[in-house]
Amino acid sequence: MIIDSHCHLSYEPLSLALNETITRANKDGVKYMLTISTEDNSYDKIIKITSDFKCVYGTYGIHPHEAKNHRQIKSKNIIDKVNLSKKIIGIGETGL
Fold it and tell me: Which of 40, 55, 87, 93 has the fewest CB neighbours in a 10 Å radius?
């Protein structure tokens, strides 16, 4: 079984052809994918992708390059975001 443990399905051009991208990956033996959040405003896309595709899970996180733009986010905000879906299985841009 192959698991892609760090992909960015919310980024273009992948986001423009999700059905095709995920179908192709599944046909090539990728059973599950973990799509990674890199900034707070992209998290809604991650939630939608994980609810639309059974084989896709996600994380909530902020990339270090984006940290300066997200100083207002506190640990409670992170926990609340993660609790929005059982398919969010990691915290941190690196999937910690």
Answer: 55
Other residues' Cβ atoms within 10 Å of the Cβ of residue 44: 12
Contacts of 73 (CB under 8 A, 6+ apart): 40, 62
Residue 23 one-letter amino acid = T
68 DSSP assignment: G
| Separation CA 79–CA 55 (nearest Å) | 23
Helix (H) or strand (E) holding 78: helix 75-82
Phi-psi region of 35 (alpha: psi -120 to 50; beta: other; left: phi over 0): beta
